[in-house]
Each structure stands twice: as C-alpha cells, then as structure tokens.
Amino acid sequence: MKNRFIAAAAMPAALVGAVNNGLARTPQMGWNNWNTFACDVSEKLLLETSKLLGDYGLKDLGYQYVVLDDCWSTGRGDDGYLVPDTAKFPEGMGAVADKLHKEGFLFGMYSSAGEMTCARYAGSLDYETQDAESFASWGVDYLKYDNCYHMGRMGTPLISFNRYNEMAKALKKTGRSILYSLCSWGEDYVHTWGGSIANSWRISGDIYDSFARPDDLCACNNAADPACVAPGTHCSVLAIINKVATFVDRGLPGAWNDLDMLEVGLGGMTEEEYKAHFAMWAALKSPLLLGNDLRKMDATTLSIINNPAIIAVSQDPKGRSAIRISRNLEAPIDEHGVGETQVWSGALANGDQVVIFLNAADEDVDMSATLSELFVMHGPGGSAPHVKQDWTVRDLWGNEGARMSKGVAQAVLDATSEGERNGILKRENWYNATATPYAEGLEQGDARLLGERVGTVKAGGRLEARVPRHAAKVFRLQSASGKTGTAKSSLKDEL
Ligand code: GAL
C-alpha cells in the first residue's frame, strides 16, 4: 500500500512545511500562563515558573518554552511599535528574554492577527513588520498568533492564509529563528494550509477543564461544518479529540495540529481523566504546553506531566500522530448524553507502536483490538506483516519504568534545596532529555522510556484491557523478537 505518511517523509525537507525554519521537529513543549492566570501576567510569574520548571526536572524532560500570553502591552507608541507594560514587566521584554535564556529556557510571546488581541490589547494586523522587529529585537523565540478582531478578514482559506502569512513573512525577514504558532481555532480549514507557513496551528476553540462535557460555546465539532463560525471557549478534551480525528495526519515534523494547552493540574478533572488527556495530546503530536500553576502543584500532577514514557511518544522522531482505528458510540452514556470508546494506534520509531484504549463511557469497559486492526495503517484486512509476529506489551502508566510514584513526586516538591531535589532525581535515575535526547534514548532502548512490561500478544492475536470509566490505557507494542526488522521491511513494502 502506498502510504501518504511515508511519501511525505521521503520528500526533501524544504517541501515539508514551507515555513522550513528547522524548529519544532518534534512537538514543542513548555508552559503558557493563560489557562491559570489569564491577564494576571508579570515578569515575576514567568521567572518563578521557569525556576520551578528547572528545579522539578521538567526543563530536562523537554519543557523549554516559557510562553507569555495576552495582556502584556499598554498599546502602540507614536512610532508605531508596541509598548510593553512596565508595571508588569519593569525592565521590558528583552530583559525577560535574557533572564530566561540564561537559565536555558526559550521565550514565547503572543499577539493577534487582528486590530486587537482577544483581551482587547493592541493587535498586530497591518503592523506585522514593526511587531516582528520588536519580537526579534527582544530575543523572542516563539510567537503565538491569535485570531480575534480580524476585521472581517476571514471566510475563505485564502483570506486567512494571507492574513497569517503576513506575519510569517515578517518573522522570516527578521532573520531570527522564531517558532510560529497559529491560534486561529481551526477556522478556514487551517489544517489544510497552516503547515505551509507555521510550526503549529490550533484546531479548535479554547480548551476548558472538562473531560467530556459538551457546551454550546464549543459548537464546532466538525472541521468541515460550514456552520462553524464560532469555535468557542468551552471545548472539552473529548470534543477536541473528536474534532481532530479526521485530519491527525496533517501533523508532520515542523508543523503540528495544536490541540490547545494542557489542563492537567487545574482541578476540574479526575486523575484518570488528566492522564488520558496528557497521553492523547502526546500520541496525537500536539504541542505540550503546561497550563497549571507550578507554585501550587501537587504530587499527582507532577507524576503525570513528568512521565518520560508518555513524553517519549510525543517526542518520537518518527513524528506521526496515532490515528483512530475504531469508535464505539454505543457505550453507556452519562448525564450529558456522552458515552463512547475509541481505539487509537500509531507507528513509532524503531518499529514500535503506541496503542490507546480511550474510555469516555460512563462505566468501566473491557476493550480490545486485533493486531489486524492495530496495524491497519500498514495494510488493511490483516495484510500487514506486523500481524504475523508476536508483540511485547508495555504499559506507559505502569509503575516500573514509567510513572514516578506519588511519594517520590511529593519529595521532589517538598525538597528545600536544589541539592536535595537533584539528589532525589538522581537517586530515582529520572530521565534527562538534555543529556540524552529522546531519539537517542529510544534508539538505545532506554527502559525509562518504554513503560512496564505487562504481557504479550501472539501473532494474529488481540490486545485486551479493562479500562476504567473516563480513562485511557496506553501501551507501547514492541516486536517480541527484539528486532526492528518488521518496521524496515514494511517501510519497503509501502514505498
Ligand atoms: C484566545 C486563545 C487563548 C488565549 C486567549 C487570550 O483566543 O485561544 O488561548 O490566548 O485568546 O486572550
């Protein structure tokens, strides 16, 4: 079978994502203030947060971008350039960038392709050149570019493309490497053109801290729905997953579907729901931007966001999203009328495969999928060579070789000195992607990235698991023969 994914991978890099700025070869990771702090921003908040990202070992797991969202300026000066709010950023934005860079972080900022930002601060529409110059002169590494107050310049893919392309060109002209992250909420089929000019593009209205509750403020469930004119601000994890499901294949190294910032640790979901949210964002290759208050983080939250076996799926060098191979809408429904289960499967580097059983039904469910279904992307009807071999199954939330225990996470949070904290992380032998990038760790078969071994699926067999209500089981399948030959031979088959 000819596979679009493989064909794309074989293309010269310059053709894959015309932005071609060498950034986000794996989905970007970091923190953004919006989900918790909205407009309550300051240099102090950014620096306190970055300090904790470093202290807790999160920077060394890949969370490197510290992104300031809306509400940072006082408007535009007479010279046409944006003026930072010195009550919030006393030494200006360049000083923030310098301080973050000194600690090994990258600095992200925000504006809107409109006359105003969504919180009604000055926007960049028709000031793209000046604003890109400012961002570059301040040492900014990342721009989140929103969609509010676009003055009617939307309605067809081309109109939106042109509006967003102005900033792409202006950023490029500065000569500085700036990751370009579109936030047009899926409007005007951004997934069909975003990859030509940007490193990521939001595909939905704003996420809110709910696993599955439908809300009229997130009415756009289907990207192709012509009536979808207000993507909204109350999109659940499940609504976003269901929206992106039909075009997950648009994500490629350097250019990703953005499922919005993480809600893990904000308090509106259960632990199992947050684990499912985090794992789905990783497997669907969304950027992983934390949205919680790190100064008040609990052990449960830390032990979700610092799971290297899940992050390794996100940062896998193959750079392909898992795809949904089945969906069951007959599952028991909750009081909102929501109830479904889904099976997702995706190819990883070295011939491995990630499989997710997602249970959004109102009770625990026994779920299963045959190898023939799980490897359908390599050939339908059981024709994939992968079906004819045995697979070792590893649980990526297992306690061995994956998730940090809550006791240890609490000790990391409670440590009173850097030495004590580093000591704990060292004793636990916690993964450090600064020292060993994920691609290298995976190539070496580093056990910390592979999860806990829980069983085998024999050739022609079926993977089965009981999945609690509102939870996901996340597995890495590895060839039981220990060879990665399967992947290579199938790749040949497909080309
Ligand atoms: C929304 C955007 C949010 C946040 C907010 C700021 O449009 O989707 O992520 O940036 O604006 O006002």
Automatic annotation (TrEMBL):
Signal peptide: 1-18
Gene3D superfamilies: Aldolase class I, Golgi alpha-mannosidase II
UniProt-listed Pfam families: Melibiase_2 (PF16499), Melibiase_C (PF17801)
Main location as per UniProt: secreted
GO biological process, one term: melibiose catabolic process
Domain named Alpha galactosidase C-terminal: residues: 339-401
GO cellular component: extracellular region
Reactions that this protein is recorded to catalyse: Hydrolysis of terminal, non-reducing alpha-D-galactose residues in alpha-D-galactosides, including galactose oligosaccharides, galactomannans and galactolipids
Subcellular location: Secreted
Key words, A-Z: Disulfide bond, Glycoprotein, Glycosidase, Hydrolase, Secreted, Signal
PANTHER family: ALPHA-GALACTOSIDASE MEL1, ALPHA-GALACTOSIDASE/ALPHA-N-ACETYLGALACTOSAMINIDASE
Entry's family note: Belongs to the glycosyl hydrolase 27 family.
Descriptive protein name: Alpha-galactosidase
Source species taxonomy: Eukaryota, Fungi, Dikarya, Ascomycota, Pezizomycotina
